[in-house]
Amino acid sequence: MERIYNFSAGPSMLPLEVMEEAAKELTNYKGCGMSVMELSHRGEEFEGIIADAESTLREIMAIPANYKVLFLQGGASLQFSMIPLNLFRGSNKADYIITGMWAKKAAAEAKKFGHVHIVASSEDSMFSFVPNVDPSEFSKDADYFHITTNNTIYGSRFPYIPDTGSVPLVADMSSNILSEVIDVSKFGLIYAGAQKNIGPAGLTVVIIRDDLIGHASSDIPTMLDYKIHADNSSMYNTPPTFAIYIAKLVFEHIKRLGGVAEVQKNNELKAKILYEAIDCSMMFSCPVEEQDRSIMNVVFVTGKAELDKSFIAEAAARGLVNLGGHRSVGGMRASIYNAMPIEGVTALVTFMKEFEEKNHVHNNCAK
Ligand SMILES: Cc1ncc(COP(=O)(O)O)c(C=O)c1O
Fold it and tell me: What is the Å distance from ligand 1's center to 52 Cα?
């Protein structure tokens, strides 16, 4: 079977070139006679892989020298707990902006360890926008301030970065890391599950400013302390070696493409094509306010659950798969991460127009 266009929110498409490269050396990594999966994490070959993964990520994200890059496990969800466990170190207060289910889960976890102040929330509007915030409402003495830069389920993203002054800004970038250029120095900590723009599930990347390491209480589990992982270069225990290897190949691929700025241009173009098709349609609409629309997860609906179901099924039969919205919201969601080629987006738009015509709905789209 040919490869198909997979619009899954994660795990999701990976660059074909990367997988072909990995396939070539799957059973014999660079002539060492072993697969990367079989390599000791203490051996020379794997040490080279993890060092290259880190240095290439540092280069493509322009990560300043006073930040550590950690390759961890437990998903972004474990970070919901590790962040409060490590960053509550003074007032035990943290500010959260609630822009979706993941932000809500992150805040709920932090509440177990300290005081959480919800600065703003768009929950009452089904998370259809990202609230504007007034810095005078931020807790001046908070230990950190948390946002989810891209809301995978609801299809929105932060169009701005809150200015939190001396309070460290912590960002869940699981679904938009490496999709656009960001200034790492504006953040105290960035984290992301790998399974969207980085590589296979099982790896979590944490980028943390040096001064935020080493404040965890000594009675927390060792594996939850950033300092242990930083002091041991992410090899306190056996790291997810194969996932780190694929991430390294993805980082190198991004570098070959011309870096994150080039990837961003392509992502913006893909999103523009898809949102234009939705906006000129008489059948489909996007529930997210225009200025806050995600360029990674494009959410749209027909307004009729049965029609949504037919659309998803018929699209799948055409090789456009995993277009169903998150189980909590329904409708459609096209996740168009870095590895989704522009051809996948144009194939989807062509199918949307055909589906409208078949259902006798006219559209205002230019042919
Ligand atoms: C923004 C965001 N945060 C957190 C998570 C949870 O990630 P994990 O499954 O790696 O724990 C997801 C998963 O899709 C996500 O999209």
Answer: 25
Which is the closest atom of ligand 1 to the Cα of 153? 16
Distance 281 CA to ligand 1 centre (A): 31
Q: Which residues does the annotation mark as catalytic?
A: 102, 172, 196
Q: How far is CA 298 from CA 59, 93, 332, in A?
A: 29, 34, 8
Our CA angle for 306, 311, 317, nearest 5°, is 130
Q: What is the pLDDT of residues 278-333, one digit of tens each?
A: 999 999 999 999 999 999 999 999 999 999 999 999 999 999 999 999 988 889 99
CATH topology of domain 258-358: Aspartate Aminotransferase, domain 1 (3.90.1150)
Closest CA to 364 of 269, 277, 275, 274: 277
Mean pLDDT estimate for the chain: 97
**Rg (Cα) of the chain, in Å, rounded?**
21
Where, residue-wise, is CATH 3.40.640.10 in the chain?
16-257
Best mutation site among 96, 152, 206, 329 for ligand 1 pocket (most ligand atoms within 8 Å of CB): 152
Distance CA 12, CA 268 (A): 19
C-alpha 92, offset from chain centre: 27
pLDDT category at 276 given cuts 50, 70, 90 is very high
For residue 223, the one-letter residue type is M
- Ligand 1 binding site (Cβ under 6 Å of any ligand atom): 10, 75-77, 102, 148, 152, 172, 174-175, 193
Query: How far is the centre of ligand 1, averaged over its atoms, from the C-alpha of 171 (Å)?
Result: 12
Q: What does the pLDDT look like over 200-238, one tens digit per residue?
A: 999 999 999 999 999 999 999 999 999 999 999 999 999
pTM (whole model) above 0.90: yes
Minimum CA distance residue for ligand 1 atom 7:
76
CATH code at 16-257: 3.40.640.10
In the chain, CATH 3.90.1150.10 sits at 258-358
Q: Which atom of ligand 1 is nearest to the CA of 204?
A: 10
The residues with which 57 forms a beta bridge, in sequence order, are none
